[in-house]
Write a structure and sequence with these properties.
By secondary structure, the protein is of the alpha+beta class. It has three helices and two strands. The protein has a two-stranded antiparallel ribbon. The two termini are about 35 Å apart.
Length: about 70
């Protein structure tokens, strides 16, 4: 079995006074004017990707040392 992960990234240009929800509305209304680039990344896995564990690497290492 294969697993695919698709990640979409947008670069948008909106006026300074607009926030993220307003930027999404502007893109939907006129993508040619506000959407500067769109990138889609496709990653294929042979095994199901592992869920990201909580904490940083040094946190997991410290827990492993303390808890055994």
């Amino acid at each position: 079995m294969k697993y695919f992960e698709f990640t979409k990234k947008w670069l948008v240009k909106v006026p300074d006074e607009d926030d993220e929800p307003e930027a999404k509305k502007l893109i939907a209304a006129d993508p040619d004017k506000y959407l500067k680039s769109e990138t889609v990344i496709r990653t294929e896995y042979r095994q199901k990707p592992q869920q990201q564990q909580s904490g940083n690497g040094w946190v997991r290492a410290a827990k492993a040392q303390l808890l055994g």
